[in-house]
């Protein structure tokens, strides 16, 4: 076999949420085929939801993902309230935002320290990294834990939370419980500042690519629970128009659907959010960016790890702001009157845009549902990035080096394959 | 606060529910000498939960091929085998967490891991109930 022609397969991609594989075919020194294969069986959640009552949906969708259950609950609740024409009270708006801050911190904290940092610092795993960098790992664990604390405050438990319902929450947290969490957040804020500066100091390639960033945009706040779907290239649509512009399609080698914007791949997630919304960050976050000489927008995909760190710091500041203004209420949710109709929900999961569409029948039960998770939206972008990154890296590198580099590129997106249906086996064919 | 904790970990549902059941039984008894906690799949954050205690008795379900309901007891984490490759945080189980705690020097002075053998295919619930009661008695005897 010529050195310029080979097939390389990564049979299981490590340190990602779920299971997938990469098949790379190199012919005469060029990539002739590159397939990111998500081979976990379809989970059929959309079908499970048919016939379910509104609040059953909220509990059921939390089971789609162990890492981002809040996102699934928030997109679903928005869609259902859209159908039932329910207003969102200011208290509920703030509590949903607080709930989401917890999930961003929990998910980003885990990904940065357990999954991504070993790549940048050249360790095979967090276990190996912990020997030389114990304080970094402890910091990750602590920030992750603060996120869990917030999720449990409103969700009653951090794993598959059950506190959210259509109209708001089943119960309002007691003031003493909020004060306890608030004290922990205030004490730990310097850790998040350190995290931003540390992530910006990580050794990373200075490689830029052309890609379109897609996310929510809200006129007044950094997007979490609401907004219009926009891109950095002119897209500006209502969430109900998602289907007209963002098209899902099936590729034969993957159980997850891919998604394209007017025929082209696009990026969702923290880097996309910051590329579009960096001007909405509060002064404290802007100051730390200046201090670290960090600028957005960025077309360097490896800056995603910095974006996650920035969002952790932002989430802590936002959570502190909301908790400082917390008022207890005896009406934590508004009553619902189920009715037939079609509704849409779209919120910013830690990994990016999470779009839901529900149709309810006259009995107030789900007639049909559709869920488009961020990982399937990023799938085509990951393939495109791999193509570019491997060509830049050099295809004459050893299979082991190609495998490591491919996995690092993929992990950088923090793909949750379990959500998109799950991660990487690399197969390289050189001919 | 007691310096001794009994901590059950795992899902309260399906085959993994035995730690939840044991903690429920312990909480019904008057045992002021120990702090009793249950955490649903805490991942690496278990290390933070154990942080303030000198002695921790951990309870989890175990699959080793022994008969269902067999009680396991380990006081050395070297008994556990960990995966060489961390596939995802989903795969970051109790063994990996304890090894990380050892590396970070963040384990309690005394750590005992109690397990009850379960099956991933089909469990004899009566057998598991008896095993839970037996484990409660064993833990009581060890601590009191």
Quick summary:
With 431 residues, chain A is an alpha+beta fold. In chain A, 45% of the residues lie in helices and 18% in strands.
Describe this structure as you would to a colleague.
In chain A, 45% of the residues lie in helices and 18% in strands. Chain A is built from 14 helices and 14 strands. Chain A is globular and about 70 Å long. In chain A, helix 2 (54-61) runs antiparallel to helix 3 (69-83) and helix 4 runs antiparallel to helix 11. Chain A is an alpha+beta fold and 431 residues long. The model of chain A is unreliable at 420-425 (pLDDT under 50). With 144 residues, chain B is an alpha/beta fold. Chain B has a single domain (4-143), classed as Rossmann fold. Chain B has helices spanning 18-27, 46-50, 94-103, 125-143; strands at 4-9, 35-39, 55-62, 71-74, 110-117. Chain B is globular and about 40 Å long. The two termini of chain B are 16 Å apart. Chains A and B meet through helix 4, helix 5 and helix 6 of A and helix 3 of B.
List the main descriptive attributes of the protein structure presented here.
heterodimer, A: 431 residues, alpha+beta, Cytochrome-c3 Hydrogenase, chain B, 4-stranded mixed beta sheet, 3-stranded antiparallel beta sheet, 14 strands, 45% helix, B: 144 residues, alpha/beta, Rossmann fold, 5-stranded mixed beta sheet, 5 strands, 31% helix
Secondary-structure map:
The complex is a heterodimer of chains A (431) and B (144).
Chain A: E1 6-12, E2 21-27, E3 30-37, H1 45-48, H2 54-61, H3 69-83, H4 90-120, H5 126-132, H6 134-155, E4 164-165, E5 168-169, H7 175-200, E6 214-217, E7 228-231, E8 236-237, H8 242-245, E9 246-249, E10 258-261, H9 270-277, H10 283-291, H11 304-324, E11 341-349, E12 352-360, E13 366-372, H12 374-393, H13 399-411, H14 417-420, E14 424-430
Parallel strand pairs in A: 2-14
Antiparallel strand pairs in A: 1-2, 1-14, 2-3, 4-5, 6-7, 7-8, 9-10, 11-12, 12-13
Helix pairs in contact in A: 2-3, 3-4, 4-6, 4-11, 5-6, 6-7, 7-11, 12-13
Chain B: E1 4-9, H1 18-27, E2 35-39, H2 46-50, E3 55-62, E4 71-74, H3 94-103, E5 110-117, H4 125-143
Parallel strand pairs in B: 1-2, 1-3, 3-5
Antiparallel strand pairs in B: 4-5
């Amino acid at each position: 076999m010529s050195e310029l022609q080979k097939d390389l397969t990564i049979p299981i991609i490590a340190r990602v949420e779920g299971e997938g594989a990469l098949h790379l075919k190199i012919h005469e020194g060029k990539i002739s085929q590159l397939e990111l294969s998500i081979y976990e069986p379809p989970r059929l959640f959309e079908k499970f939801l048919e016939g379910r009552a509104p609040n059953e949906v909220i509990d059921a969708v939390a089971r789609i993902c162990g890492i981002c259950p809040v996102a699934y609950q928030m997109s679903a609740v928005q869609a259902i309230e859209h159908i039932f024409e329910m207003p969102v009270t200011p208290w509920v708006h703030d509590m949903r935002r607080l709930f989401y801050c917890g999930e961003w911190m929990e998910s980003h904290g885990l990904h940065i320290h357990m999954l991504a940092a070993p790549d940048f610092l050249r360790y095979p795993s967090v276990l190996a990294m912990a020997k030389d960098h114990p304080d970094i790992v402890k910091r990750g664990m602590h920030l992750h834990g603060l996120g869990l604390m917030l999720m449990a405050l409103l969700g009653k438990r951090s794993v598959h939370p059950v506190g959210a319902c259509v109209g708001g929450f089943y119960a309002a947290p007691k003031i003493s419980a909020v004060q306890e969490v608030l004290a922990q957040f205030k004490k730990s804020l310097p850790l998040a500042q350190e995290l931003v500066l540390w992530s910006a100091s990580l050794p990373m390639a200075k490689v830029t690519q052309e890609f379109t960033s897609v996310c929510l945009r809200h006129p007044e706040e950094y997007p979490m629970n609401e907004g219009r779907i926009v891109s950095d290239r002119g897209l500006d649509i209502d969430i109900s128009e998602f289907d007209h512009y963002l098209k899902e399609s099936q590729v034969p080698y993957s159980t997850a659907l891919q998604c394209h914007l007017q025929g082209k791949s696009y990026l969702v997630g923290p880097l996309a959010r910051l590329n579009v919304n960096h001007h909405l960050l509060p002064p404290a976050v802007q100051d730390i960016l200046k201090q670290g000489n960090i600028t957005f927008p960025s077309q360097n995909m490896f800056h995603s790890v910095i974006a996650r760190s920035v969002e952790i710091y932002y989430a802590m500041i936002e959570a502190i702001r909301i908790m400082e203004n917390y008022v207890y209420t005896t009406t934590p949710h508004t009553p619902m009157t189920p009715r037939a109709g079609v509704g849409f929900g779209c919120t910013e999961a830690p990994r990016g845009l999470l779009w839901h569409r529900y149709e309810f029948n006259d009995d107030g039960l789900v007639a049909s549902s559709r869920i488009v998770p961020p990982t399937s939206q990023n799938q085509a972008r990951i393939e495109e990035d791999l193509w570019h990154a491997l060509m830049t890296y050099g295809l004459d590198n050893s299979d082991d080096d190609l495998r490591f580099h491919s996995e690092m590129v993929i992990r950088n997106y923090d793909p949750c394959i379990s959500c998109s249906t799950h991660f990487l086996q690399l197969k390289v064919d050189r001919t | 606060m007691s310096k001794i904790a009994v901590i059950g970990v795992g899902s309260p549902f399906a085959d993994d529910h035995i730690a939840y059941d044991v903690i429920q039984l312990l909480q019904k008894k008057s045992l002021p000498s120990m702090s009793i906690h249950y955490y649903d799949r805490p991942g690496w954050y278990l290390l933070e939960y154990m942080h303030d205690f000198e002695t921790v008795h951990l309870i989890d379900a175990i699959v080793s091929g022994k008969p269902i309901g067999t009680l396991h007891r380990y006081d050395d984490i070297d008994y556990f085998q960990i995966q060489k490759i961390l596939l995802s945080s989903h795969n970051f189980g109790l063994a990996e967490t304890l090894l990380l705690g050892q590396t970070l020097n963040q384990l309690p002075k005394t750590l005992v891991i109690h397990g009850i053998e379960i099956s991933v295919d089909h469990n004899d619930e009566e057998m598991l109930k008896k095993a839970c009661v037996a484990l409660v008695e064993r833990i009581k005897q060890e601590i009191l």
